[in-house]
Amino acid sequence: EGKSVAAAAAAAEEEASSSSVPSDVKNISGGTEAGLTTPYQMHRALLEERLRMEGNSAAEVEATSSSVPPKVEVDEDSVVVMSRKAALDSPLDEAISGFVVGAESDGDGTTGAEGDGADEVESTEELKPLLSAPTDDADAAASGDVEVPSESAEKEVRIIESERSDRGADMLGHSDIEWRIRPPRETKRLKRLSLKLAANLIRLDCKVKRNKPPNVLCPKGGQAVLEAYYKEPGKRRKRRIARFGITTLRGPRSAEIDETVMELYDASMPLAGAGVAAIIYMFVEPDVRGRGIGELALEAIAAVHASQGCDFTVLVADDDGSGKLVEWYEANGFSRAPRLQNMMGSPDGKFGTTMIAPTSVSEGFFETVKIKWW
Prior knowledge:
The protein has an eight-stranded mixed beta sheet with strand order 6-7-5-4-3-2-1-8, covered by helices on one side. The protein is of the alpha+beta class and 374 residues long. Helix 7 (137-143) packs across helix 8 (153-167). The relative contact order is 0.08. It has two domains: 2-169, no CATH class; 174-373, Gcn5-related N-acetyltransferase (GNAT) (Aminopeptidase, 3-Layer(aba) Sandwich), CATH 3.40.630.30. 37% of the residues lie in helices and 13% in strands. A hairpin with an 8-residue loop joins strand 2 and strand 3 (239-247). It contains 13 helices and eight strands.
C-alpha cells in the first residue's frame, strides 16, 4: 500500500512537471526570471491552471483548453504583464484585452488587436525592465511601471490614491512639530527670566505633589507667541520654522461680537456673552510653506484659546484684496464677520477682512499634541 501511494505521488509530480504551462508563463506569474509569451499562450496556460485548481482531471483540462480558439494574433515580441489572480478572476476575453503593453486603445475598451491585427509594440529589449516590476496589479499600477487600461476604474482609483500619497509625502503633521509657547518678542530679558523661573517652579510643584502639569500655561500679560520647531532629516538640531502671535486672555464682552455669533452660528448667548481671543499674526518660513504648517497652527491655537476659556478666535486677514487668504481661512473653519471691522481696527476693510471661528479642542488632543510652555 505504501508503494502504491508513493507511485501515485510520483506520477502526479511527473504530470505536473510535464504540463502544458510554458516555463516563461510561470516566470511572468511570479517566478524568479522574467520570460516572454504571446497573449494566447498566456490565456491558455492560465485557463488550464484554473481548471486544475477546480479539480478537473488532466484529460478534461486538455479537452477544454484545446477547444478555445486563439482570440488575438500578436507578434512574438509583444509582452503581457498580468498577475495570475487578475487573469483567473477575469472573463476570458478580458484576460487578454487591455494588457498588451504598448497596444493602442480604440476607446471602447479594446486594444485594436482584434480584426485587422495589432500594431507592433515596443521591442522585447525595451520592455524587459517591465517584467522585473511587481506582477500584482495594484503594485504595478501604484509604481507607474505599467500602463493601466482606461476601462479599469478600480486601477485608476489606485493610481489617483498613489499620486495623492506622493503629493502628501512632504506634508507635516503634529507628530513632526514641537510646539512652544513663549512670551512676546518685545518682553524684556529680566521679565523672560522671571517667567522661566516661575514655569520651572510650577513644574517642580506638580512633580512633588504628583499632579499632572497644565496642558497649556500662557505667560502673564495677555499675549504670547506660539512657535513651531521642526527637525529636518539629517539635521541634529530642531529649527524654528514658524511663529504665530496670539492673545491669551478672554476679551471684554462686546455687542458686535454677540450679534455676530448669533447671526453666524444661531447660538444662544450666555449671560457673560461670547468671549474671544485673537490671532495677531502668522508667519511661516518660505522654504516650508505649502506643507500644512498653517492648518496645524490653527488647530493648536484653537486648542490654546479653548483651554483659556475663550469661545471664539478672531483675526484680520489682509491679502491685499486678492481674496486668496480669506478663502484659505474660510476653508479652515473661519467666517467673515463684517460687524467686527471697526472693533478690530479695520473700518471698511482698510487693513483686511475680519473673520471669526469657534474654538475647540478634541478629546485627547493634548495627549498627542504637546505644547511646551516657556
